[in-house]
Design goal:
The chain is about 40% helix and about 15% strand. By secondary structure, the protein is an alpha+beta fold.
């Protein structure tokens, strides 16, 4: 018997009601959904019709290192869908189902304080809540993300930052090195440093018309980019 098969046999049945609903929800994800696959709220509730708050029990698994994405983290998902990305602690084992002492969730007041400190703007792209991305898709939603920061003394600290639903997906594992950042700042010319200081004081940087045009050019399909290059180099008819 393979190691994988032995591990599958060792996992208890999610139908065993001697386990709590959080544990059974984890077992259901492992045995019925599988890592990397999508499930719906309807499927979850159909599996646990007797548990009134089964959605919350699934969310509780995140406190044990389970990654379960919603549309907020993965914009390819529909509103009713979630993706079981990765299993965390095996909560069906003795001692593993206890909630960690330090919860990862934020209070509403803490969340508002972070959003206010960031001027209610995504700190990665600058978009505000409800604004359009300009591509006909879903409007921007803001949330609080955790960012690993290496401080000047070499220690690491988790800090909170505002990001939109799109930037949060792409920057989930982003880290900040303050020493490296300040080193790059020191290498700027006096003129570049003055420009940066202006952006810093205003806490914003509006792209120039040239930068906007370049950004739009980069979104063009290959054939359209070729047409632009031909026009710029004077080879078009």
């Amino acid at each position: 018997m393979s190691v994988e098969r032995r591990l599958q046999v060792a996992v208890p049945s999610w139908l065993d009601k001697t386990f709590g609903s959080k544990v059974r929800a984890g077992l259901w994800l492992v045995s019925e959904v599988g890592e990397g696959n999508v499930f719906t709220k309807g499927q979850l509730r159909a599996a646990f019709p007797e548990v009134a708050q089964i959605d919350r029990r699934v969310r509780d698994l995140r406190d044990h290192g389970w990654q379960i994405d919603t549309r907020r983290e993965d914009e390819t998902l529909l509103l009713d869908e979630q993706r079981f990305v990765k299993k965390g602690a095996e909560v069906w084992l003795p001692g593993q189902s206890k909630s960690p002492k330090e919860k990862s969730g934020l209070t509403a007041n803490q969340r508002t304080q972070v959003l206010a400190a960031d001027s209610f703007l995504c700190r990665s792209c600058g978009i505000g809540a409800g604004e359009s991305f300009g591509d006909g898709g879903q409007d921007a939603q803001l949330d609080v993300a955790r960012r690993q920061v290496q401080l000047l003394d070499g220690t690491h600290e988790t800090q909170l930052v505002t990001e939109c639903n799109r930037c949060r997906v792409g920057g989930r594992h982003r880290q900040v090195d303050l020493t490296g950042f300040l080193g790059s700042l020191e290498r700027l010319t006096p003129l570049e440093r003055d420009v940066f200081t202006g952006w810093l004081n205003a806490d914003r940087r509006d792209p120039s018309p040239l930068e906007k045009l370049w950004g739009e050019y980069r979104t063009l399909p290959a054939a359209a980019r070729d047409a632009v290059r031909d026009a710029v180099h004077g080879t078009g008819n």
